[in-house]
Each structure stands twice: as C-alpha cells, then as structure tokens.
User: Fold this.
Amino acid sequence: MAEPVALKLTAKDFKSDQEVRWCPGCGDYAILAAVQSFMPELNIPRERIVFVSGIGCSSRFPYYMNTYGMHSIHGRAPAIATGLSVSRPDLAVWVVTGDGDALSIGGNHLIHALRRNVNLKILLFNNKIYGLTKGQYSPTSEIGKITKSTPTGSADSPFNPISLALGAEATFVARTLDSDRKHLQSVLRAAATHQGSAIVEIYQNCNIFNDGAFDTVKEPATRDDYLIRLEHGQPVTFGAEGQWCVVHPPGGFGLAVRETATVAPADIVVHDATVPDPAYAFALSRLPEADLRHTPIGVFRSVRRPSYDELVRDQVDAAVGKRTRTPEDELGALLGSGDTWTVL
Amino acid sequence: MAEPVALKLTAKDFKSDQEVRWCPGCGDYAILAAVQSFMPELNIPRERIVFVSGIGCSSRFPYYMNTYGMHSIHGRAPAIATGLSVSRPDLAVWVVTGDGDALSIGGNHLIHALRRNVNLKILLFNNKIYGLTKGQYSPTSEIGKITKSTPTGSADSPFNPISLALGAEATFVARTLDSDRKHLQSVLRAAATHQGSAIVEIYQNCNIFNDGAFDTVKEPATRDDYLIRLEHGQPVTFGAEGQWCVVHPPGGFGLAVRETATVAPADIVVHDATVPDPAYAFALSRLPEADLRHTPIGVFRSVRRPSYDELVRDQVDAAVGKRTRTPEDELGALLGSGDTWTVL
Amino acid sequence: MAEQSEVTSHADAARSGGAKSVRQLDRVVIRFAGDSGDGMQLTGDRFTAETAQLGNDISTLPNFPAEIRAPAGTLPGVSSFQVHFADYDILTPGDAPNVLVAMNPAALKANVGDLPRGADIIVNTDEFTKRNLAKVGYAANPLEDGSLDGYALHPVALTSMTIRALEEQSVSKKDAERAKNMFALGLLSWMYSRPHSSTLRFLERKFAARPELAAANIAAFKAGWNFGETTEDFSVRYEVKPARMQPGTYRNVTGNAALAMGLVAAGVRSRLPIFLGAYPITPASDVLHELSKHKRFNITTMQAEDEIAAIGAALGASYGGALGVTTTSGPGVALKSETISLAVALELPLVIIDVQRAGPSTGMPTKTEQADLNIALFGRHGEAPVAVIAPRSPSDCFHAAIEAARIALTYRTPVILLSDNYVANGSEPWLLPDVESLPDLRVEFATEPNGDDGTTFLPYLRDPQTLARPWAVPGTPGLTHRIGGLEKADKTGDISYDPANHDFMVRTRAARIEAIDVPPVEVEDPDGDARVLVLGWGSTYGPIGAACRALRQRGLPVAQAHLRHLAPLPANLGDVLAAYDRVVIPEMNLGQLAHVIRAKFLVDALSYNKVRGLPFTAAELESTLEDVVKNG
Amino acid sequence: MAEQSEVTSHADAARSGGAKSVRQLDRVVIRFAGDSGDGMQLTGDRFTAETAQLGNDISTLPNFPAEIRAPAGTLPGVSSFQVHFADYDILTPGDAPNVLVAMNPAALKANVGDLPRGADIIVNTDEFTKRNLAKVGYAANPLEDGSLDGYALHPVALTSMTIRALEEQSVSKKDAERAKNMFALGLLSWMYSRPHSSTLRFLERKFAARPELAAANIAAFKAGWNFGETTEDFSVRYEVKPARMQPGTYRNVTGNAALAMGLVAAGVRSRLPIFLGAYPITPASDVLHELSKHKRFNITTMQAEDEIAAIGAALGASYGGALGVTTTSGPGVALKSETISLAVALELPLVIIDVQRAGPSTGMPTKTEQADLNIALFGRHGEAPVAVIAPRSPSDCFHAAIEAARIALTYRTPVILLSDNYVANGSEPWLLPDVESLPDLRVEFATEPNGDDGTTFLPYLRDPQTLARPWAVPGTPGLTHRIGGLEKADKTGDISYDPANHDFMVRTRAARIEAIDVPPVEVEDPDGDARVLVLGWGSTYGPIGAACRALRQRGLPVAQAHLRHLAPLPANLGDVLAAYDRVVIPEMNLGQLAHVIRAKFLVDALSYNKVRGLPFTAAELESTLEDVVKNG
Ligand SMILES: Cc1ncc(C[n+]2csc(CCOP(=O)(O)OP(=O)(O)O)c2C)c(N)n1
Ligand SMILES: Cc1ncc(C[n+]2csc(CCOP(=O)(O)OP(=O)(O)O)c2C)c(N)n1
Ligand code: SF4
Ligand code: SF4
Ligand SMILES: [Mg+2]
Ligand SMILES: [Mg+2]
Assistant:
C-alpha cells in the first residue's frame, strides 16, 4: 500500500484535537504514542487509514488518532471493519480492542475474521481486566482472580489469546508489550505489511484495576529470564546471557525450555514464523507459565493465504469486468429475463 | 454419576413418542440410533438426563429422546446448558448442535463453555452445510464451496473444529463418524465419563445438500488409507496393513505421516490423550488434508481440570454451609447491616 | 360478489357437458398438492408461466411444509402450490380451489378440507395403497367409501400411465416415475387450454445436461395432454380469456425476487456499490441467494457468522460509501437491534429487510405473519427512531426496495422494510418498469470542509431541508473525523455529556424521521359515499382489496387505504381517518398498527386480527366488513 | 412552596449572624464536588450517614463523571455528591444546593451554575493555582475577580491546613494531603451539628489494616471540626431537627443495593436458589457485585461472556428450577431480545432487570433516562408479551424486585424490571421491613402426570386461574418432556403448525399477561378537588410528588398517580384517567408511556418530556403543572 511519493508525515500529524482521557499512568498512553510515531513510516495518507474499535478504555483509541475512525459498540468492531475492508480495498483498516471487547462479547467476530483472513490489523490491548466498567475479571484473567464480580475468586480458566487465534486459523499472530516501544513498533511494522488478518496481543497495564499484571516480564530483575524474544531465523534463546533455550524434546510433545549449556546447539529451535503448520506456533504459545515465566513475544506466525477481501473483490471485479452493457441496460436485461409476455 | 442399582433400560426407553422427521437417508438417523442404544449403558434414570440443542436439522434431536429436552434458539444451547448444568449438578446435560449452530452463530458460547470447562457433553453434528435452511455453506465447508449463497464459490477457509476447541482450552476433544456405530459409541462412552466439557465432532452426511462429503473416509476403497484411528497407548499407524504411521519429525515441527516400513518402531508416535500440553493434540488435528486424507478419529485429548460447575458450586455450598441462621434471620441480618438508626 | 363464490357454477359447467365441449370461465383456482418430493412447486410454476403467456391475470401461493423434510407420504410432508387466474385483474391467490390435484393420500387429506363442494379433484390412484392410506390414518379408501361424493372426482393412474408412456424412453424406472408431475401438468394444461411451448422450452433448458431426461419429461407432459384429449372422464375443456391489462411487457415475479431486483436497481440508480450482509434464515434467504448471482452490478454479498455480524458488516460498508443492506426475519431483527441503534447514532444509510414469519421465538418459520411492526417501530433501547415501510404485493417489493434505498440515502438513516412470507413467496404478473423512469438516487459525498472557517469539518452539521448530516467517506482528504455511539455534540460530533445537547440531539433524531418526505396515502372510494374506511399495511392489501371490491359490487360502500409508510406516517393520514365514521384495521397480528393509529390520532379504530400463519381470505374480510358497514 | 425556594432565607441567616449562634433550618441541600480522586462520594456517604443517625429525612444524588477517568483537575473529571436533608419527609435530592463544597476550580466551575444567589460556597483555595485555573479556562481567579459576589464565599486552605494538622502523624505527605476530604467533612459536620461518632468508627474500620491512616483521617476530621468552631468566617451553626418518621429501624440505601437485597429476599421467601447471569454494564454492574457477595443465600452469580449468554444461562437455570435473573442496561436489553422471546414461548419464570441509562446506542452511560419502556413493551419479534414493572425510588427497588419475582414465579413468565441510573445510585432512608411480613413466594413444581389418563404429562396444560403451565423440572420421574421455540400445540406442547392452534396460542400468551393480578393504581388527591391528574412511572415519582405538594401548598389542587405496573396496567386505570379533565404525563423520554395511555384509553394526555440525562427538577414540574392547573 506504500505510496510512491514520500508524504513526510510526523507523529504530530496523527494526533487528533481530542483531549486524551485515560487514567494517569495507563498503559494505553504508551501504546498511543508508539502507534502515532510509527504511522508515518507507512507513508499512507491519513485519510486512507481507518481505526475501528468497540467499547472499553482501549476502544477510545480512535478518537485520539487524526485519521478516520469509528468508536462502535461492544465486541462488534471486527464485524464492522470487515464490511469496510472488503468494500474498500484502498483503505488501511485497523481494529483496536480490549480483552473483554475482543475475547468476551466479541469472541465470535474475532475468530471468524481470523478464519476468513480479512485484511485487518487487530490490536488487542490485553490488561486482563475490564477497565471501563471499573474492574471485573476478563476472559484473560487468571483463574481465582478476585474482582468486584468475583469476591471469592473467578472460576474460569482464561483464554490464551495466541492459542485461540491459532486455533482459529490466523495467518499472523504476535505479542508485544505496551512498555517496550521499540519492540511494539517492530511488531506493528510486521503486522502492517501482512496481507490478511494480523492480530497483535499487547500486554497493557491497567494501573487502576489490575496494576502490575505484567511486572514479571517488565521488571529488570525478572524480565530477562521470563521473556522469550522471538526473532525470525534466530535460535530461540533467552536469559541475560542466553543461558536458556527452547527445544523440541525428541519423542516428546510440544516445546520445552532447557539450559542452553546442556543442549547441543543444533537441538535449539530456530524460530521460523513462516512454517505452514500452525502446530509450531501453537506449541510456542503454550510455553508461558502462570507467573508469565517463559512468555514469548514477537511474531509467532506469519504465513501467506489469500485474504477474504482479495477473493471476494476478485469475484465482484471479474463479474463487473465481464459486463458489456450500461448499468441501466444490464438492469433492463435482468428485469426482462425469464418468461415474459407482452400485452399490446 | 452411575447409580448403584441397575436400571435395566433399553434403547426403546429412550425413544420419544415424536415421529422422527429427517430426510430419508440423513446421517442424523444413525446418530440418533447410536445414542439411544448407548444411553442405557450410563445407567442414569432418564429424568436425570437433559438434551439441549439450538436450531438446525441436528438440533431437532432432543424431541426424539425420551429424556428432558430443550430445543432452544440458534447458537445459544451452550449458554443455556451452562446455566442448567451449574445450577443442577445432579443432571447429565448433553448439548446437540450443528456446524452452523455451534461454529457460526454459536461460536462464542462454544469456546467459552470449553474454556470454563462446563460439565457438558457436546455433540457437534458436522455435515459441513446448513441443512435446515436448505443448503448454504457453513464455517466447516471447504473454501470455494458452491452453494445457494455462494454461486461462484465461498471465499473463506473453514474452521477445523478440533483445532478451534483445543485453542479454546478444551479438556476433552474427539471426532467420530455417523456411520461407524461402534466407534461412535466408544467415543460417547469416553465423553460421558469425562468431568467437564467434552466436545465430540461427528461427521454427518447430509444426503440432500452435501451428499458424500465424507465418502473418502467411509468408502471401503479409501477409508483405510484416509482414516487414522487413535487408540490411547497404541502407536499411531493406519492403512489396511498398518503401512502408514505418524511420526514426530526430529527438529521438524508438528506431526507427519510416513511409511511404517521406513520408520524405526520407536519413532512412531504412541497416542496419549492425557498429555497436559495441548500442542500434541493440536498437531494431530492438523494432519488431515483437503480430501480428508489422514483424518484422525477417536479421542484427541482427555485431561482433568476442575469443571466450572465444581468450582462455582463449591463456593456456593461453602457459603451456605457456613450459615448458622435460618434464611429469614440471615436476611434480617443482611437488611440490618451497615449504619442503621431507630426511630421510636 | 366474493371471489370464491363462482365455484359451483364452474363444477356444474363440468358435469352438465356431454361430448367434449369448451366452456368459458372468468376465473379458476387450481391447487397442486403432493409430497415434498413430487415437484409440486415446479409444476405450479410451469402452469403459472403458461397462464401468464396467455395473458390472464394471476396470483399464486406456494405452501411449504415445515423446514425439515418429513418422511415421504406423511401429512407434514405435503407441499402445495395454488394458482388463481382470471380474465380480469385479481388480488389474491383465491380462497378456495376449484380444482385440487392430489398426488397421494396425504395431499388429499391435507387439502380436501379447503374445497367447496362440487370442486374437481384429480387424484393419482397409484399412490392410494393400503400402506399410504394407513400412513395418514385413512381407515377406508376415500376414493371408494363415498366420502368424496359431492365433489367431481377424477381418479387417474398418474404414475403407471407415466411409466407406460415412457417405456420407449431411455430412462430408469425411477426417473420415469419422477416425471409424473409433468403428466399431471400436461393434463391440466389441456383442461384449461394453456399454451405449452414455453414449458417444452423450459424442460429442454432445465435438462440440457441430460437430454434423455428432457425427452422423458416432454413425453410425459404430452402423454398427460393427450390423455385429457382422449379420455371420457374429462368431457369439458375450459377457457379463461386474457385479462384486460395495461399494455407492456410482463413477467411473473415473487416478492423475494422483486425485492432482490429492487436492490439491484437501487444500486444502478444510485451509482453506488451494494453490500449485502446476511445470515441465512427462512423465509429471507432467497434474497441473499438471488443477489449473490448479480455481482456484475458491483454487488458484494457476504454470508456472515450471525445476524449481528451481518448488519455490522453492512454498516461498515455504508460507512465506506456503499449502500449497506441486511436481510433477515424476526429472530434476526431482534439480534440486530443494538446495531440498528448504533446506526441511528451514526446517521448512516442502512436498509434492513425483515421478511416476517410467524413468531414468537422460532415460531412457524415457513408461515406468514405481520407481528414485527412493534419491534420495527419500538424495538431499540433509548430514543432510536428509524423509517419503516412495507410492500403490499409481490411485485411491489421491487418499488418498496427502491423507496427504502431512497430514504436511507437521502436522510442517512436506517430504514426497515417489512415484507412477509406471503408476499415473499407468492407471485403475480409484473408490468416491467422502464428503467430510465426509475428514481434517480445519486447522492453527494462530502468533499470539502463545511465549517465557517473553511478548514474544519463538522460531521454533524445538517442539511436544513433533510436534516441529513454529510456523508464523508474514508479516503476523502481533509475530512478525517471520528464518529461513535456515545452522544455527540451538535455539529462537531465530539463526545458530549451536556444535558441540553442530549435533549437537542434526541429531538433532532426524532425530527429527522418525521421530516422524511413521504407521499400522501391514497383512498380508494370509487363512489365517494363510504362511511367505513379499511386501513391496512403490507401484504394484506390483496385480501382487503378483494373484500372491498366484493362489497362494492354488492352495493355496500367501503373505502380502502393502504399504508406503505409506517414511519413516518403520511401527513394526510389524520384527515383521511377523520373523514370516516368508522375505521377498521385488519392485521395478521394482535393489532400493532391499530395501537399506533389510536395513540397518534385518538381514533377508536376497530381491529380485526387473525394470527394463523396464513393470509386473510377475502371471504372472511368481506363478511366482517359487511357487518361493520351495515351495523356500524 | 417549592423545595428550593428557602435558599435565600438560609443564606441570610448565615450572614445576619454576629457571634457564633445557632440557627434552626427545616431543610438543607449540600453538594460536595471535587476531582474524581478527591473522594467526594465517600465524603457524601459519610455526611449522609451522620445525618441519618440524627433522624433527618434524606435524599441523595451522586453525579459520576463519564466512565473513563479524565485527567485530574479537568471539568470532565469532576465528581459530585448532593445530599438533601430536612426535618420533614422529602422526595428529592433537591434542585439547587444551599451549600457547595468545591475542592478545586473545576469543581467550582462545573457546579456554580446550579447555585441560587446567596448560597454558601466553601472552596479549597490551595487548588486555585494558575495551572489549575487555566486547565478549566478561568482567565482570572474567580475567588478574586468578584464574579462570586452575591454568594457567601468561604475560602479555606483545605489542603495546607490538613497537611499542617497531620504533621505529627506518621503518614506520608501524599497520604496527609489525601485526608483533606475528611477535613472538609469535619467542617461541614460542625456547621450542621452532625453527630460524628459513626464516622470515627467507620474510619477505624476502613483503615483497620493501616492504623496510621485511620489516625490521620480522624485527626483531619477533627481538625476540620475545630476549624469551624474557632474560625471567624463561620459565625453561624445550623441545626435541622429530626423528621417525624414512622417508628422503626432505618438504614440509608441506594436503588441498586435495595434491588440486590430484594432479589435475596425473593430467594429466601420462595425457598428457591437464585441464579444471576449477568454481563457487566454501567449502571447495572453493582447489582452483580452485590449479589456475588451473598452466596450464603444459595445464590449463584455468573459473569457470562455476553448479554445473550447471561440471559441464556439464567433461562437454563430457571428451566432447572431456580429463579433465573439477568441484570443489564439498554444495550444489553437489545441483545437479550431474542432470548426473552424464547422465554415467552417456553413460559418459564425469568426476571430481566434493566437499569436504564441515556441512549440511543452507547449514549451517556453514567446518565439517567426512561427511554427503554418501548423496548420493554414492544421490543421482540412476533407477539411476545411480557410483564413490565418499575420502582419509584431507591428503597422501592427492594419491593419491586420481590414483586417481579412474584409475577415471574406465579405466572411462569419473563418480567422486565425498569430501574434507572437515578434510583440505582441515589439513596434515601429505608424503614427496614419485617422479614416475616414479606410475601410468601413458594411455588409448587409438577410432580405427577396431569393428563386425564393419569399417565401422560401435558406440559402446556394450564392453571385455569393464572393460565400458568406446570413447572416440571428435570430430575422429576415420569414427567420427561421436550419444550422449544417452535409453536407448540395447546396442552401437549408438541410442535404444531396448525393455524387455529397458533392463533389460540398467540391469544393465550397475551391473555396470560393481561390475567396477571396487579394492585389498583392509587391516586393522591388529598382534598379530592383536583381536575388535573399527573401520571408518572418509575423514578420520576420524587420530583413529581414534590411538585404536586408545592402546588397544593399554594392552593392549586392537583392529583398524582404513579404506575408500578406497566404491563399489565392496573384494572382501574381507565376509570382513574376518566375522572379528570386533564392528564399530564411527565417522562424522561419523548412520551413512551403517553403513547400507550393514548392508544389504550383514547385519552388526550399531555406529555412533558425532558431528555437530558438528569432527573426532573421539582421546580420545572411545578411551573409546568401550574400552567396546566391554571389554564387547563
Ligand atoms: C453491549 C454492551 N455490554 C456491556 C457494555 C459495558 N462495557 C463497556 S466496556 C466493557 C468491557 C471493557 O473491558 P475491555 O474490553 O478489556 O476494555 P478495557 O476497558 O479493559 O480497555 C463492558 C463490559 C457495553 N458498553 N455494551
Ligand atoms: C437467529 C436465527 N438465525 C438464523 C436462523 C435460521 N437457521 C436455522 S438452522 C440454521 C443453520 C443450520 O445449520 P447447522 O447448524 O449446521 O444444522 P444442520 O441443519 O446442518 O443440522 C440457520 C441459519 C434461525 N433459526 N435463527
Ligand atoms: S481504568 Fe485502567 S485501562 Fe482504563 S484508563 Fe484507567 S488505567 Fe487505563
Ligand atoms: S437437510 Fe440434510 S441434514 Fe437436514 S434432515 Fe435432510 S439430509 Fe439431514
Ligand atoms: Mg481489558
Ligand atoms: Mg450443518
């Protein structure tokens, strides 16, 4: 979608005139700033970019972007964005959603958008809580979570958004952090250039209702041993000195973490986001433990599959292309098709 | 849930007085017969069994079972059954649904029921078509499917119900065929005894709108080479003479099919439905090809996780148990809690 | 006199005849009934086409069994098709058939009750076996136990005669037996002197891929025709002269087909792409099926994962500058309610088509009803007014669809179109409109800032006439803006919690709908001496009209007014109602329009309600209205 | 005279005073306003509790900012709490405050407009910095530019005085600063002679875990109190004598809390488990939060994945023999529509609670409105009637919840309870009911076959009185049966497409609702000489009542009737309406009840509508009604 001429846009060009209204300290501010300063890279005129969101703190996002935008209703953004994207291939359509918006009420639209591979860039702000409604647990909250609606602890095990997306045939799946602008933008870059659905889970801190949910992967003390940074083509190692690595235990199932020293270099998994079989990315998605130990971030999967948009447009364009008559004549022909008779 | 005394029920006891109304030759007949003749095994009184369905040809199922039953609305059976199951732990609650009912309109309720691990036995009749509405494609129809609503071919790639269920944290996932009563009942047996959500995908032939969709895994000529019968604890081999097998290619990702002769016996995957990491079952779910070649049937995954029902009931029962006063006195105490004052 | 009251004269004509003679009739009602597998819909369609060729006026009514196929030969499996044709213009498929073609005992049992004494019954005797009779609970064979005395019974061995006729043909016995409906069609075509060339052409087209089947079906048709010619049992042949109809080219059309073509026309005349987001549901699915064939008009159809996604996608497409449309039936309308409310807040064009069926809940999916007027008018949270219109007949669906698009595009509002199963699947001859004469629906997208300062864009600055806001589609430079479901400040569209602004916006959204320019309602009162007005809406137009005519022919004056626009109501409606002593409102619900009329005009309107899943009969309305006209 | 018209006398009292003196007042309205972070809701709650202790009648109104926290010190960030207390019984939180406590410039700017001249304004001068003034667009400092002349301005350095007062305490500066709301509370408690023991106890409880904070807040409270005592600026102290109230034990209660307790009571009195299926939504979430704390009453609460699942789960639980309840607000009601229609078809008990907020679409989630009456009455496809009721005040929510349960259980029907943000978050003293006096809601499940043959079970055989069908819960031997959303045959409940049966069932479902036995509506017309009747429903009871009283006090007769039951309507309503020359219907919508009344009774009712997201003021209603009473 890159334009020939350089538009020379800056982050400022993407700030709307609306006063930004999140709680002081909210992770959403960092994400907004990261997106605004990333957008110029795409060299797409602002009017060709649309942000569609649902409802939630995160979903206020479009109001703060100086692009076209729709703050729709709870959970329905992927459906609305699908209609827009399919009928307007010239636009870059982004969806901003929260863990409740995307995975609770909006779960069905999300998995169907992914299955169809609609050309949407979906940013899922996961703060593992309902922020806007003031702190009920969400489908990504850990089991036993004590919240206003679960004073004795929640009874449902959470979704793993990456696993769910892969189970729904997603072609591009990634995870990043609100606090790591460089990484966040690298992931946005990969997502923006993907043809089809790209879903990016962004760990986002809600400092009012779920503060510190991601501390273990953010605190200097722990992050190196907890975070696994996936780099395409690189062996999957982590830890301050790369002392940990991910292997494919022979005969065993899935993937596992080992001490690098104890493993033959050849046995260390080399990350490849492009493997056709999603089983690999799925296995990666199962590495994290409850305390976020062994959380991979980066692009899990990125494969090419015709987008729903392309396939649908091709059918329509082909049919329109074959038309030889004016629309009115074609309509006349349609009305007069089948058995007709004439009264004089 | 098994009762001490043997009830000596027969298949006939489970036939309702309603005339069965499906198209002659519909796979639903075979499934109904299999379920009716399986039920007595459970030795559960009929009144303690409830079938809840949505809308679709398949969803007429409850009317034909002489148990309690609700033919609800399109896609909502898992939600309705959840409320019933959670509040009535003494009941055996079964859900009957179709590929459209469960995966199109009902997708969100299904994945949330699986995530929560609600104690439901879900039978998904997958005929890869909308039968009741006379033949539109469904979320399991192959891409390019020509139907009434897609005269030039559908543009969306299908869900793999097994992969989707695993991505949604399902604890019990299986697949079987309408035409193989023995296998169908063996899977029902395993599902019935599972604590928590058990989802069973049943390949079902719609001989009116999608006839022969599963012929390759049913025809004597092909089935042996196409079907992979999973048996817990057994090496995964198939073919008339077991000439094919499933291996875990070293270094490679996921699972693959090889000629048994070319593989060291030790390298043949031994099926274990109880591995905690769903990555294995997920890898199995990716084996089939577009023509159903290499389709595993049987129990993919069966692991124990506390059911939503148990956890919720425990919280309620514990609270009720701690109560020392009569309900009325307890209510009086509640009303009078907090700051009160008295006017004389 | 009432339409069905000619029946006897017709049958008498039959019996009275000696050698083959030809009788003139002004109208006939034939019902083809058989098993779901017997191809009765096709047979009816073909007979209708031949009759159309001949220039009679026509009205048809298919009657599908429940969605699920019942076992062969059972009552729930019976499928029928009724066709009414006449040498004058008619308004309904007829109350009672003059002729019943019954392909099996179930078909006879399910339909004989609707026949007036003296009607012709043609039965396929081959199917009257012990087993089949038992299946439907016939203790004795009705063809022999005299229970059909008083009808003109014609026993015909349809199956065996067809098989015999096709012995020479190179088709399987099964295929030969399948052709029996063509034998029946041939016989009826002969009886009523229908031209058969179009049917023969049709069969060649249909079986182009398998010529042997074409040949077999044609042979069966001819065998049936010749049987009529030769057999003694059919002594009379009937003719129904062409109706005096406006000159022009006609076709027979069902409501769903006309609706689809109306949407195509709306796209052509607005020069906009059409985006249909739909989730299949009886009886609306055919509109999706039909439109999906017309991509060449730049029409995109999407089968969404559910009704909410379907309307969401349509709304997204409208936001992008297409005409978003969604088609559904009752349960789907309920699910779309929240998104319709969003569309009201966003003020974007959107057409919501509800092909009504019998409710509540799943109800009777293949039966008709008018009980979704309430949800269309009032079924949203908050004050969320939309425009509502309804077609009155199958062909009228074409114009109703164009009108819905006109309102949606001109006023930037959701419009709900209330069709129903009766008009959707019924058919009638349609005088093809001249395409150029169709309304011009072109709209102007916003392209420039509209603020006083010449640089800012105000997405909620309204057109003083229409109160419509600018339609600024993504991709337009300089107009980037944000919209959403939270309350918006007047003009700027920014989020606003200002109390006065909210009150203003709520009233403005209501005023927008009231401001829609709709034509005055017309009153049919030929002699202008009526004191009773019958007010209707939607698919009841036919039976109400037929009843009114019948009353007038009997010298009982009655006026008829029929509403196309239910929101807003025509400006002259109040005066129209005031001009009569009594207002009667027949509805296939419990009085939903009556409720609105009473509230708005404080008129003590009389409701006549039947909620049977079937259209009104002209006869029942005639007698009800007669009562009112005579006794006030 | 109107409630707010004493304001001046009150302020005069203040100024006229010399040395500290005590003045008696009959009523006071205080508004605490500050930043979302300033703890104004807590401050207001405490002041209310102290006031309750003292035995005044009370009515409170919190005013939350939009759901999302705005940056500190901005106008959208302002949160306020208004408390009205008097020595007689009052009906509203008061139109205009006599006293405004403004913790920062934003709070002053956002609220000063509501103050009558002469009102007291207590401002926290420490917050009136250049930056903070600029934030809200104050060019000059309003405390200095004379723009507040005509008010009784009390500049107090709340923050710094609090910090100074806590120097001795072992708390951080931040925590000390945080305690400034307690300083303000102390000051106001002194001014209005409130008993403070309960507050001190409360603080100890609240900060039990951190005693140093308890000590600090208590010290701040006392500092404020002493400041009032010592400073010259506050020369007068006020007293408001206890109100003459019915003897008994009282507590202050909000509508949402009362609603939750009403549901608990329904469970206790029906001996049934309660199953609440809910999806969080403002302003209904608190009912879920509250009920989830009361599992000991055999209450199960489930936070579902969406509103459809929430009502689905509740319906499933009802099918299993629990009382299924679902709580939501407008957008959620829209989503539940299809399932409510199923519940109508299944004829099972179900309570749907809609805490209304301003719409359409997302609207203004924290603001009040009455615009969901339409969707409650008419928002389903097909003919799907349900019962609808509405509470009139915070404490009335308790009884309304029990009444909803009574109807649902007795008649096996969905019941929609229409609360709104105003009653849900407002509070008033509540005379605690005697538990034993609450209605007995026990029901009988079906346990035996009910067919004539003594062996078959007919799930749709009705009770002749209530028309309710048997509630046969799974687990009951001998009664296995199937139900569903397709049309059911009378008695057997089997799937039926029979036209006559459908008509019968549609009318029967309507008759069931009409048959519900609801108490007659009462008319308040003390002198029986009124010619004008004011008819209301729901949360407008307070302002309407206050306006009517004020008019009567001025010798202008007016009658008031307030509806709890909106479907079915009370049997005597027609006669009541007929007894007056003029009927006025004030609603916080565009006339939804008026529409129903006009349609049903053909009464030319006058609508008074304001849709501002705020409750009516007694004053506006008083002047509107005065007009009608005088000029008819
Ligand atoms: C139909 C509907 N149901 C419920 C709500 C209330 N609601 C608004 S946002 C939200 C969830 C917010 O959580 P999330 O999506 O995680 O966003 P966050 O605020 O955490 O960024 C809910 C339940 C609504 N606005 N509409
Ligand atoms: C809310 C709603 N939307 C749509 C329908 C129409 N409908 C009934 S069943 C069905 C799909 C049936 O497909 P499936 O679930 O695969 O069941 P099958 O008939 O194939 O067994 C649809 C779209 C409906 N009844 N209700
Ligand atoms: S509530 Fe949480 S998520 Fe919402 S704005 Fe505040 S900090 Fe951010
Ligand atoms: S349509 Fe298909 S699925 Fe439905 S009953 Fe007939 S054969 Fe079975
Ligand atoms: Mg969240
Ligand atoms: Mg199916």
User: Anything to note?
Assistant: The first strand of chain C starts at residue 21 and ends at 25. Confidence is low (pLDDT under 50) at residues 1-18 of chain C. Chain C touches chain A through 71 residues (CB under 8 Å). The radius of gyration of chain C is 27 Å.
